[in-house]
Amino acid sequence: MNYPYSEAELRQQLCDIGRMMYERGFIGAADGNLAARIDDERLLVTPAGVLKGFMTPDMLVVTDLDGNALDGGRPSTEIKMHVALLQARPDVSAALHAHPPYTVSFSLAGIPLTRCVIPEIVVTIGNVPTVPYATPGTEELPDSLREPIKKSDVLLLERHGIVTVADEIWNCFKLLDMVEHAAKITHLAMQLGGAKVLDREQVEKLVQSRYDLGIGQRNTLADDAAVRASCSLPLRRG
Fold first, then answer.
1. Domain at 7-111+118-184, CATH class
2. Which residue in 29, 33, 38, 32 sits closest to 11, CA to CA?
3. pTM higher than 0.90 for the full model?
4. Where are the alpha helices (DSSP H) in the chain?
5. pLDDT exceeds cutoff 80 at 238
6. Cα 49 from Cα 51, distance rounded (Å)
7. What are φ and ψ of residue 205, in 5° steps?
8. How does 97-128 read in b/e, with b if 16+ C-beta sit within 10 Å?
9. For the chain, domain boundaries
């Protein structure tokens, strides 16, 4: 795997993204965590109990690929979740976890984010599968993610938040930003009487357009006709 950034650059990127997550309201207090591969043997992760909006590069913790600290620091309490995500997806270099309020509110209300509503999301991500509730900070959570993350770059964790994986940490943030923006638009539309879904023909055209545009990232709709068909069902509670 190619590693285009130095450890110093990664440290600054994780701090910048932690600040942006906090400023945009995607996390509160010490919530959320980030991880990125430094090289084939080490990860750089956010520390436990630190306000992510106010991190400095020296606070980041270096671990081995199993999440064991190598520099005496104390990694995030969710380190096992990041390890599971990166082990399941050797094609990605970074993982992010946040608690974006609009996205999480759909989970709390039992409304799936698997319907095709926003064209840009259909073309890029596809839709956002929800992983059934698992207790944070336990082995239940990482175990629940190992299979679903193989099919999607974005997962909604029931009652907990969202995880994203990508080739670099900035693209993890991009996915988070896109999903929360789409969830906010959908929420507002529902307050106005309902969010109409795209029909099957419209979805098929959008999925085809991603090939024409050369978009190669993982997409939950691209190779599954049944999922494409179901995403055009009316938006309702799960």
1. alpha beta
2. 38
3. yes
4. 7-23, 79-88, 101-108, 119-124, 140-145, 169-191, 200-212, 225-230
5. no
6. 7
7. -65, -40
8. bbbbbbbbebbeeebbbbbbbbeebbbbbbbb
9. 7-111+118-184
